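Tutorial handout. Part one gives the primary structure; part two gives the three-dimensional structure as tokens.
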Amino acid sequence: MLYDITRTLSAATAVFPGDTPVKTAEVMRMRDGDSANVSAIQMSVHAGTHIDAPRHYSDTGIGIDQVSLDVLMGPTRVITLEMPGRITKADLEARHLRGVTRLLVHTRGSEIPNDVFDPTFPHFEGVAADYLGGLGIKLIGIDTPSVDEASSKTLQAHMAFLRHNTLIMENLCLTGVPDGLYDLIALPIKIEGSDAAPARVLLRTMA
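Part two.
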């Protein structure tokens, strides 16, 4: 079975307050006599389902075009954490994650509508992020707009994942996906030097 865990982008897609919203426009229309239909889009690279590049939180970090696709494809564990707010180290220790390389965390964030920005979304404590990085996890995904608290200025979880060379994937939608092991395909748009990029993210059940 194939699960598309990508959020649909539209003009209604919620973004962080102050970030660039999604805007689409028809620049050519067959009904107006043009030879084809052509659209244009303007948006933040962090709108909807996206992958952060190290450049997002480090001036010396690589851009999304240099991120290894090997990390973004392969066996992936999905777990559900039902706490309303902070994800702690203890929450993660109870899930026996040693040996996991890629981890997707399903929270109540998946049930937040695409057009709603909820500033109370679940997020990682810095210590929890450092714990996951220390386990050797190279890709972390979550179904919320950020791995950090919405109001964070220090981005402790981002910085912990950076120290461990752990890539971050945000704004997934894991509704209807049972916990377990899957084959992941996550392909960001190849934008030169960008700090992030929208991505189409799929999970395939493993035989």
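Part three, for discussion. Residues 146 and 171 are 7 Å apart (CA to CA). The chain has three helices and twelve strands.
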